[in-house]
């Protein structure tokens, strides 16, 4: 209780000051004990009525009861926190100004035991820690879900490109068969191609991949034309492989191990906005079954360096000769160089195959190729002839000559 030295006390007889102070101290301690028991959960009552407070003081000293009203009036007039709060019956009435309106007395500083304080602190810390852990779990869950969605989208995109390659192979093979057997129709129903490429048990799971592959062919593949044909009395959408004319055969003859142009333009859907890591995994660069000799992988490395001839950041290339997906791994000096290589390679046609690229974590790259740890010298093509780019130069030159004529 604050020492009540004020103008109001100067009007009180000196012998009553000591008596009032003692009663306030006693009342303060009692109210602090009651409030502390309530905070610790051992009592449902947090305050005392004026009658209960008067009875308590009377038990301590009958003279205390006689100065209670004077003490309460001083508390109301002081307007400061003296450790005792006066309350009325009306919970909405914040400030009580008249002693006759005071019905309850309450401590503003509960007195609690060490055990109670420790328990309350433990509960408080545990509650806040639980909220923090819950927040961390939610953030982790969101990040994990986003990572899952990105991985799923990347996998679906890879499957879509693989499906495009399979569809083109089927249509090209059918076109070659038609040239040998004139009884065959020069087109294939799209549903027939779908059913021949996707087993029945996988058709529901691969529906989205198939639809994306169909849309991709319609938007990006000029050699495949979609038509409507009547077959067996019903109309079907069919694909027809557009065979190049004889006049263009010499121009369109594509030697092996050459870059054959871009299949599609890169955008947000098929290219990350930022370079993620300095390492890349390139698919569909070769077919291990079709490769001959012991040094064929060198031609693959040379083709990549020629395609990225303006990139001074490639320091390591590894060809997985046993990969059924035709995988080649590339490490660059920085993610920026890797992003430049990604844009040069992803979505390109190479040796009749659609090349796709994804980023690979640096630690996984070094785990698979420990020798790449010390590689920091940029690689360059072994010669200036740029053989793998010859078809692109031929096609560009032909286009320019046609434009000039």
From TrEMBL:
Residues 28-242 form the Man1/Src1-like C-terminal domain. Its main location: nucleus. Keywords: Membrane, Nucleus, Phosphoprotein, Transmembrane, Transmembrane helix. It comes from the Eukaryota. The keyword DNA-binding does not apply. GO terms for molecular function: chromatin DNA binding. It is found in: Nucleus inner membrane. GO terms for cellular component: nuclear inner membrane. Pfam families: MSC. InterPro entries: INM_ESCRT-Associated (IPR052277), Man1/Src1-like_C (IPR018996), Man1_RRM (IPR034394), MAN1_winged_helix_dom (IPR041885), Nucleotide-bd_a/b_plait_sf (IPR012677), RBD_domain_sf (IPR035979). Residues 383-405 are annotated as: Disordered. One of its GO terms (biological process) is negative regulation of BMP signaling pathway. Signal peptide: none annotated. PANTHER family: INNER NUCLEAR MEMBRANE PROTEIN MAN1, INNER NUCLEAR MEMBRANE PROTEIN MAN1 LEM DOMAIN CONTAINING PROTEIN. This is MAN1 protein. The lineage of its organism: Eukaryota, Metazoa, Chordata, Craniata, Vertebrata.
């Amino acid at each position: 209780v604050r020492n009540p030295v004020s103008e109001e006390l100067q009007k009180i007889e000196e012998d009553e000051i000591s008596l009032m102070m003692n009663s306030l101290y006693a009342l303060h301690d009692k109210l602090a004990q009651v409030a502390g028991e309530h905070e610790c959960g051992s009592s449902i009552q947090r305050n005392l009525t004026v009658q209960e407070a008067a009875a308590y003081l009377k038990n301590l000293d009958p003279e205390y009861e006689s100065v209670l009203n004077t003490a309460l009036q001083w508390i109301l007039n002081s307007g400061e926190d003296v450790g005792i709060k006066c309350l009325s019956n009306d919970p909405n009435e914040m400030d009580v100004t008249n002693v006759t309106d005071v019905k309850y007395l309450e401590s503003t500083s509960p007195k609690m035991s060490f055990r109670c304080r420790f328990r309350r602190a433990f509960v408080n810390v545990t509650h806040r820690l639980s909220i923090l852990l819950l927040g961390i779990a939610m953030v982790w869950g969101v990040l994990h879900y986003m990572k899952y969605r990105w991985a799923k989208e990347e996998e679906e995109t890879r499957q879509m490109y693989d499906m495009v390659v399979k569809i083109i192979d089927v249509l090209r093979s059918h076109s070659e068969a038609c040239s040998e057997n004139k009884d065959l129709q020069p087109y294939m129903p799209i549903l027939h191609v779908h059913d021949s490429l996707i087993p029945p048990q996988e058709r529901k799971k691969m529906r989205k991949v198939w639809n994306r592959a169909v849309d991709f062919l319609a938007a990006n593949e000029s050699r495949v034309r979609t038509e409507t044909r009547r077959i067996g009395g019903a109309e079907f959408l069919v694909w027809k492989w557009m065979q190049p004319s004889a006049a263009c055969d010499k121009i369109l003859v594509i030697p092996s191990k050459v870059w054959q142009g871009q299949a599609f333009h890169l955008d947000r859907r098929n290219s990350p906005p930022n370079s993620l890591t300095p390492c890349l995994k390139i698919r569909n660069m070769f077919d291990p079954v079709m490769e001959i000799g012991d040094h064929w992988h060198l031609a693959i490395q040379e083709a990549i360096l020629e395609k990225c001839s303006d990139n001074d950041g490639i320091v390591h290339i590894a060809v997985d000769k046993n990969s059924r997906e035709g995988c080649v791994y590339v490490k660059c000096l920085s993610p920026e160089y890797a992003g430049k290589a990604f844009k040069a390679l992803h979505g390109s046609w190479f040796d009749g195959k659609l090349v796709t690229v994804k980023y690979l974590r640096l630690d996984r790259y070094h785990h698979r190729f420990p020798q790449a740890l010390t590689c920091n010298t940029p690689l360059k093509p072994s010669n200036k002839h740029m053989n793998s780019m010859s078809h692109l130069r031929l096609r560009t030159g032909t286009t320019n000559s046609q434009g000039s004529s």
